[in-house]
């Protein structure tokens, strides 16, 4: 079974909502043809997309062609809208979460859903996480790597992580509003350099800020193989060693990094080997970033190309780990 943990979806009609709000940063969808559109922000093209991003039937056709049994649906990070008034961001989150839940309910053997929450207001975010978990029956929440420049170890987020652990809500952390983006206007460096760096900062903040130590049962998966974090852990451990006056932890950062899950979107088998060596096959979850241009085609390609994996390891990475992470029983057939 192949479960693609990292895919994005958006309701086709969400623009009807965001055009009612004030502020040019609200994303909108402008159709360019029968099967394509642009996501617009502040009058500029943020991302070109196809109908794969809103049409579940088209996704299912692609899944059949690429031997994917289940997709895990999550919002597109630009719709997090942490910059906006929390009440308006909550309305957009609810629209997206309802759409994802409806899509899962229409095709329960094909899709699993993750929701979004307005994390700029923790009380409102917890309220929507409660609705996602206990009313919509979504399987987890996707959040960004920072909230308006505030790292995830900020004390204001503690109650959110506490509730996520208490309710056993898995969290998928995806980069957005990357650090240093003002230095990356050319070459699409925001996607290739900015996002991995941003994810490393988020993961390091959660570790060094004591969040992972405080909430050992909290389930978190980091996008894009954890970005640069796995390769920076030796340097983080060295900092832990030489700056004892800064320590907030009982053990070095690499110890707590083993609590994370990591998607397999690392492009090269040598990188996947590195993840396996450091975290074990039980913590690696296949994800492709469907349907965007940088995605892995077909999903699981890097796993297929990685030598010396046992049948059990392959089965876990390609599907079983994702279902276990999301507390979802194995789904069979269509």
Automatic annotation (TrEMBL):
EC number: 4.1.1.45
Keyword Transmembrane helix carried by entry: no
One cellular component term from this protein's GO annotations in UniProt: cytosol
Gene Ontology BP, a term: secondary metabolic process
Family: Belongs to the metallo-dependent hydrolases superfamily. ACMSD family.
Keyword Zinc appears in the UniProt entry: yes
InterPro entries xrefs: ACMSD, Amidohydro-rel, Metal_Hydrolase
Pathway noted in the entry: Secondary metabolite metabolism; quinolate metabolism
Protein name (Swiss-Prot/TrEMBL): 2-amino-3-carboxymuconate-6-semialdehyde decarboxylase
UniProt entry keywords in alphabetical sequence: Decarboxylase, Hydrolase, Lyase, Metal-binding, Zinc
Complexes and interactors: Monomer.
Domain Amidohydrolase-related: 3-327
GO function terms (MF aspect): aminocarboxymuconate-semialdehyde decarboxylase activity; hydrolase activity; metal ion binding
Domain of life: Bacteria
């Amino acid at each position: 079974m192949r479960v693609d943990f990292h895919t994005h979806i958006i309701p086709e009609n969400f623009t009807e909502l965001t055009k009612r709000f004030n502020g040019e940063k609200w994303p909108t969808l402008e159709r360019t043809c029968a099967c394509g559109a642009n996501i617009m922000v502040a009058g500029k093209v943020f991302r070109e997309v196809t109908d794969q991003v809103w049409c579940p039937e088209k996704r299912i056709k692609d899944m059949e062609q690429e031997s994917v049994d289940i997709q895990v649906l999550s919002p597109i990070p630009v719709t997090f809208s942490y910059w906006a008034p929390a009440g308006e961001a909550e309305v957009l989150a609810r629209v997206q979460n309802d759409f994802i839940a409806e899509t899962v309910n229409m095709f329960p053997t094909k899709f699993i859903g993750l929701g979004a929450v307005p994390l700029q207001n923790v009380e409102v975010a917890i309220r929507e996480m409660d609705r996602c978990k206990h009313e919509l029956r979504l399987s987890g929440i996707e959040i960004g790597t920072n909230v308006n420049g505030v790292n995830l170890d900020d004390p204001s987020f503690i109650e959110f992580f506490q509730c996520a652990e208490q309710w056993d809500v898995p969290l998928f952390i995806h980069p957005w509003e990357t650090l240093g983006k003002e230095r990356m206007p050319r070459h699409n460096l925001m996607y290739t350099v900015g996002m991995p760096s941003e994810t490393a900062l988020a993961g390091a903040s959660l570790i060094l800020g004591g969040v992972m130590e405080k909430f050992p049962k909290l389930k978190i998966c980091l996008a894009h193989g954890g970005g640069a974090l796995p390769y920076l852990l030796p340097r983080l451990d060295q900092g832990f060693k030489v700056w004892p006056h800064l320590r907030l932890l009982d053990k070095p950062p690499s110890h707590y990094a083993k609590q994370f899950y990591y998607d397999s979107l690392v492009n090269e088998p040598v990188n996947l080997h590195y993840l396996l060596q450091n975290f074990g096959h039980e913590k690696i979850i296949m994800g492709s970033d469907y349907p965007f241009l940088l995605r892995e085609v077909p999903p699981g390609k890097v796993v297929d190309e990685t030598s010396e994996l046992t049948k059990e390891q392959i089965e876990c990475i390609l599907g079983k780990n994702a279902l276990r992470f999301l507390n979802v029983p194995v789904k069979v057939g269509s």
